[in-house]
Each structure stands twice: as structure tokens, then as C-alpha cells.
Amino acid sequence: xxxxxxxxxxxxxxxxxxxxxxxxxxxxxxxxxxxxxxxxxxxxxxxxxxxxxxxxxxxxxxxxxxxxxxxxxxxxxxxxxxxxxxxxxxxxxxxxxxxxxxxxxxxxxxxxxxxxxxxxxxxxxxxxxxxxxxxxxxx
Amino acid sequence: xxxxxxxxxxxxxxxxxxxxxxxxxxxxxxxxxxxxxxxxxxxxxxxxxxxxxxxxxxxxxxxxxxxxxxxxxxxxxxxxxxxxxxxxxxxxxxxxxxxxxxxxxxxxxxxxxxxxxxxxxxxxxxxxxxxxxxxxxxxxxxxxxxxxxxxxxxxxxxxxxxxxxxxxxxxxxxxxxxxxxxxxxxxxxxxxxxxxxxxxxxxxxxxxxxxxxxxxxxxxxxxxxxxxxxxxxxxxxxxxxxxxxxxxxx
Lengths: 139, 250
Description:
The complex is a heterodimer. In chain A, strands 4-7-8-6 form a four-stranded mixed β-sheet. Chain A is elongated. The longest helix of chain A has 12 residues, at 83-94. Chain A has one helix at 83-94, and strands spanning 31-32, 35-36, 39-46, 56-58, 61-68, 80-81, 104-117, 123-138. Chain A has one helix and eight strands, in the order E-E-E-E-E-E-H-E-E. By secondary structure, chain A is mostly beta strands. By secondary structure, chain B is α+β, with helices and mostly antiparallel strands. Chain B contains five helices and nine strands. Chain B has helices at residues 2-16, 21-34, 54-74, 83-87, 187-195, and strands spanning 90-102, 111-116, 125-136, 147-157, 165-175, 180-185, 203-209, 214-215, 234-241. Chain B starts with a helix and ends in a 9-residue tail after the last strand. The chains are: A mainly beta, B alpha+beta.
């Protein structure tokens, strides 16, 4: 093997410079050739609108994020994609029947807690791990 | 860009569409299922029209502390909460159901008894810790520098003709002039009650001086059910899921 001059490589990570995790009703929107690329969407569930504030103490609502969009090659430069997803997207181009596209799925999840009364007036604080989608990407 | 507008409008109309009654009920069912509830709880209003508030206030503080910890974890800061709280999947507070006093109108020793209904505990979770919390006012009737020994027992067996069998759970020493919430470790009792629910005979609290003289808990400043709503005794239990919950396909 030919020994090449080594450049100092930045720390390897799947998080690209601008991970798709901006808050708000819509995260950053990327549209490529009429197709929506993989991104995070928000669907706010209001406990107030559901008429549940007599038993749910906190929070007043919940941001139910989800991931939706296409993982089509070439993957968007801002996209949070695994190396395997990049390869899979390439192979899919060559053998679309044999290899499916990479999936748009959560890349980072966090916990959320709900505080509520039960029918005996006891108060319950329930922590749901891996519940809130923090960012989406191609897997 | 027409494709941008199309996709944006599509997403907006999806988000702004009002849910039909059926969809709303389905969404409610789905959220209740995630919370592990068979149906929507119906908390009862107390006689005064308001719910007891010491436990909800404590739990709300805990909720905010946990939320802060989750934010800090995202920023890779050290968790500020204790290990038990950080590792808990569920925390439940229990309202005191029954309170019996043997106060100054009875013979010594004086005591206070409390009972909590632990039948509604979540399935598939194990108790990691349990606390009994009671508020103590400054004792004005005796020397404020005097040391008080406050002990909490699990009632193991009751008899009609003799004293109950008791098991010591926790003991605290403090000055008669001290004021604030006292926290007793009652993990052993809650574990016994979960294994055998009909053995839940409650907790008994005694107050003694250095020389072993029994003191009426009320006159030592310990508040019971007749105290202000924000200072009523309650129990908190911390649970950890023994396994990942299996979700039914819907």
C-alpha cells in the first residue's frame, strides 16, 4: 500500500453539520425534484383540546414529532444519514427490485414525562423513555 | 417553486384539519394505551370541592426537576437529581386514606397511624424506593432545643387484646423547634404490601424524648389530616420498569 500524507480527520460522527432538528411546526423543508426529503414533522396533541385537564396536570400538550420523507440518492447534504444508508441508497439505484431504499426514521429520541391524577386522587408521574423524536435521518 | 408550495400546502392542510369525533376518540384511546390506562381517570373532588394538594405540589416540583434533567442530559450536563429519581420510570404519590390517633386523651404511649391504598400500582414495575412525608411545625409547647426521636413502623399484625406487632422502618432525631417536611424511608413496607396486599395495615408513628418519654405527635408539631391541605402527609413510591412494555399492534 502506498503510504499517503495523513490529514487530521475530524471526529467521525453521523451527525452532519446541520442536523435536521429545528423546533416548530415544520422543521427545515427540503424539496428535491418534487419529492419531500426525509425530515421531522410536528403534530401537536393538546390535552386541553381533548378536555383532559381535569386529570392531566402537566404538560398541557405534547409535540408528537414524526419522521417522513424520502431517502433518495444523492442524499441531501443537510441530512442525518448513516454510512450504511448512503450505500444502501446507491445499491438501490442499481438494483431497485432487490434492495429497498433506506428508511426515514428517528436518529435521536428523548424521554418525556406526564403528570396526572388517577381515579383515587393519587398522582402519577410517568416517564416515557425514547418517546420524543429529536431528529430524523436515513437508516 | 410549485412543488415546494404543493408539499407545504399538503402538510398544512393535514395539520390544520379538525379531527372528527371518531378520530378524536381513537387518538384519546391511543394516548391512554401509551400511558397504560384502561380508560380516562376520573379523579374525585374532595368535600371542599378541591383536591388534596400537598402530594400534587410535590409531584409537580418533581416533574419540573425531571424535565430540567432531561434538558440537561441533552446538553451533556451531569444529572442534578438523585439516582433513584433519575432511574424511575414511574413515581406515584398516595393520599392518606385513614388516620388514627392515640393522643393525649388516651394512655401513653401516644401514636399516629396512616394507611395508603397501594392496590393501583402499575403492573410490570418494581419498587426501587418509597418515602413517607409528613410536615412538622415548630413545637411551642416544649423546649425548642430538646431532641425528639421520631420513629416510623410498619404494622405487621393487629390484635384485639394486646398491642400490635410492629416492624421498625426508619428513625429520625431532630430538635423540637425544627420545621419542615420530614422524609422517612418506607421501602420495606411498600415491598411487603405489594407482595401481599391484604397485609397492608398501615404505618405507625411515635415521638419520644431523649429519656424515652412518649409525646403526642400532634403537640410535637406533626400535621395530619386536619392540617392545611398543602401540608398533609402522603407517601411517594418510585418504580422502575422490569422490562420494556410490549405494545399491542393496533
